[in-house]
Design brief:
Layout: H1 3-20, H2 25-34, E1 40-47, E2 59-62, E3 65-66, E4 70-77, E5 80-90, E6 93-100, E7 113-116, E8 125-129, H3 132-137, E9 144-150, E10 154-161, E11 167-173
Antiparallel strand pairs: 1-2, 1-11, 2-4, 3-4, 4-5, 5-6, 6-7, 8-9, 9-10, 10-11
Protein name: Secreted protein
């Protein structure tokens, strides 16, 4: 073995720990989202422009609770505090679920639907195709794909039902934190 080959191997062996320490795209996404824990932001409905349930209402997200494996983000639509996005991290694979509650805190009949990322995604975007439990609960949502984006200025929550015209997009301005809202319906601090 030549001296040049030996130096190459030694250099490779010393840089290997640095390569192994690089974060996966989902870890970078997770840490970026987690850096907003405790903060609330206001946003707007981007699609569909004419939506009876969301259009013209104050939209607020609050990155309310963060642990090593779970981030809970209540999403308020006007006075409606029924929705919480729950993102779980299982060894770098993220899952998005939707926790829906009634005003008295009881679970909605349609609850904890969502999907799991099929790979580590990208640092600024994660996709969540509908899972089997969602398909059983909401057969029409079998082709749902949710995705969340986050960068220095915006957080977006998106939904597309493949094979249909159904599309939904909320854009939150994460450059201007607002006063934290009250707890969502059914919230229990742990």
């Amino acid at each position: 073995m030549t001296l040049k080959q030996q130096l190459y191997i030694i250099t490779f062996l010393f840089t290997l720990p640095l390569i192994a320490q690089e974060s996966s795209p989902s870890e970078v996404f997770w840490n970026t989202l987690k850096s907003h824990c405790g903060k609330a932001y206001e946003g707007s409905l981007a699609l569909p422009e004419e939506d009876e349930s969301f259009g013209g209402k104050k939209l607020v997200m609050h990155v309310r609770a963060c642990s090593d494996n779970e981030i809970k983000i209540p999403f308020y639509v006007g006075d409606d505090k029924s929705r919480t996005w729950v993102i779980n991290n299982d060894n770098g694979i993220l899952t998005l679920k939707h926790d829906h509650r009634h005003e008295d805190g009881t679970e909605d009949d349609v609850n904890f639907y969502g999907g799991t990322a099929s790979n580590a995604g990208k640092e600024d975007i994660q996709f969540f195709p509908a899972d089997v439990a969602t398909q059983k609960m909401i057969p029409g949502a079998a082709t749902n794909v949710w995705w969340i984006t986050i960068d220095d200025t915006t957080f977006t929550y998106n939904l597309r039902r493949l094979g249909t015209d159904r599309v939904f997009k909320v854009v939150m301005d994460i450059t201007k934190p607002i006063t934290e809202p009250e707890a969502p319906w059914g919230w229990i601090d742990k």
